[in-house]
Amino acid sequence: MFYSLEEMHLSLNGYKTIEDEVLRVAGGPHLGLKVLYFTDNELKSWTDFLKLAQLFPRLKYLYIASNNLPRIDISLEGVLPQLESLHLAGNNLDCWECLDRLNDLQSLKSLRMINIPFFESDVKDATVRRNLCIARCHFQLKRK
To answer: Would you kindly state where each structural domain of the chain is located, as residue ranges?
Structure first.
């Protein structure tokens, strides 16, 4: 089933959760998928993020902006070992410790975080926010 598929757009579909049944019916991991757009859905749990990682373990680019993902309350160690770019804008992350969790994504080089509640309420100056983010992250961020 679409084993040569490398990019998929599942944005704006109103997904609230990823049922365990989807993992079973999907026919195992899809190793060819490198880019997944899953923005503007309604995910509320990082457990669903782990399910996406199980389905598409070789993702390099993941766009999960504008969901309802809260504080990262799970370990990301060993999850998506090839992930280079993560777009988290517009989620409900509520603490700086969320950045610490992202350090577990070993190959991460690019991170997009705008419209994040704690990020914009704690520090008003955009340059200071960016510098704090870089200081907190151990991965190598690319300059745009």
So the answer is: 7-136
